[in-house]
Amino acid sequence: MLWLLALPVVLSTRISWEENKVVKENCGARFIGEPSPPVPDGTPKFLVMGGKPAAINEFPFAVALAVREKRFAGRFSNCTGVQISPRHIMTAAHCVVSYDQYQLGWRCRIRSSESVPMSKVEPELIMAHVGTTCPPSGSCYPRGTEYKASAVR
After folding, report:
1. DSSP codes, 131-143
2. Which PANTHER family match (predicted)?
């Protein structure tokens, strides 16, 4: 299940015909389950499954999300998303929904059909960085423009 984050993202422009062609040619080129190619020594080890290093802003629609935990101000969960319009980012539901993990595990163990109470993460706890490439030993969050979420839907 996917959720949309309404963010005041203004970096989006239409892609050209040539850029769209490249995206279509490369989309889905690697799938989970395919063997990863050997990684030469000195290559960064922070790649997505079977991925390759990306140049800064090579994928301007990629989004790094940091969700601050409400009870622990200095603690963050990191997720990714995709910018789908100038004002919207799509991400996975587990990035923007909070629930009691203990209750979820317990209900799974006893095979309960009861659902676990869930709530949306408050928008002010979500920060987004659009088009970010993170270094292997650093953090995305001091770099680039940080956008605050205005809604979680």
Report:
1. T----TTS-STTS
2. PEPTIDASE S1 DOMAIN-CONTAINING PROTEIN, TRYPSIN-LIKE PROTEASE PROTEIN 6
